[in-house]
Amino acid sequence: MLAYSGQGFEAWRLCAELQLKLKKPEGAFETLTEGRVHFGQNRTHAQAIALLTRAREIEAWDDDLLFALSDFSTNDSNR
To answer: Which CATH class is domain 6-77?
Structure first.
């Protein structure tokens, strides 16, 4: 199991990039959105947002993704 630190973030990101190179954008999108749930603590929100932002570059109009990004934005502004 990955340690969900900076190294864990890089593992999720690199796995998604590999899937894109293998012409599997659906797998890359799923990897990124799945990976973000491991970064839900306040101190790791930046990593979750980075994964979701990259996922948005793959599938810009996914409603669940847009809601997840807006949730992070709302939570950060309420602090």
So the answer is: mainly alpha
